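Shape is hard to put into words, and the shape of a protein is harder than most. The fold becomes a row of whole numbers, each drawn from a learned catalogue of backbone shapes. The outcome of that step, for a single protein, is printed below.
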Amino acid sequence: MSDKAVHPLRGPASESDINTYLENAKPSLNKDNVEFGQWYWAYSEAKSEDAKEEKAEQDKDKLLEEGKKLEDILLKECERIKAEEPVRENKKSGKRSQKQWREDAYKTFNEGVKDLAKECNILSGKWLFFPGPESVDATWSKVVHSLTSADGALHKHAKCNVAKVAANTHNPEAGGGSADHPIYCICVYVDDSWDKKAVGEVFEILVKELKLHSQSYKCDANTILGIDSKHKSGIPSSLWKATDIMSKAELDELKNAKKEESTKKFNENAKVAAKKTSAEDEVDGFDEVSSSEDEGPKKKKAKK
């Protein structure tokens, strides 16, 4: 199903402009965003100059060419390890395990990608989220408000300037899951993937202020090279994990706090709904239904 193009939102934007954008850029509608690569985009400010974008395209070609050489070396080394090295470590003989050899190969590859990405000026990357249809709109709304509002925490961070969400679950680049459990992809970008301080600060904004928990951060260089979770080498596709930024104890504490907050909000909404229903029943003249079939309806007091 095709739909009209939804243009990116650029901050700083008014609340009215943000809400209008979100009405159109609503991924749960599962429509096609025909002119913008099947994604809905949001920017903290004006986009980069055209000249810089053209240079990025040229750098991307070089990254692909040189990165393919690094990938070939990695795959050949993994094949050698599987054929020649023991599965388990033998401390007595000094033999290293296949896992230890692979970790060295992964490290060499990652260092090569890092150097190449810097040389090609493709340093950006993203924290990834994979919400389902029931939560994708609310999650995307939080990100957009924080990124494009003048007082938004992401908007104020100098190293976070772009976010996007898959416009539908049949997007070949970002749709996923299955027919029974479709998922979307949301990316919140950081300018320099190897600037751990900035990557960590953006993560903390997402977790602490927006109550959004991402498990992994992937650099754009790996995306361009096609390094994903199903890569033949078995190399992890993410550059950073949540536990690289915060301890498991800290993350668990924040998740529990979020759960308690959600439960409290649910109970408060339930109470409000119950009071509203009771008030409406009273206005309509209906008696409260008995909880037992053995009880008769409550008698109304006779009017004097």
About this structure: The longest strand covers residues 39-43. DSSP finds nine helices and nine strands in the chain. The chain has a mean pLDDT of 85. The radius of gyration is 26 Å.
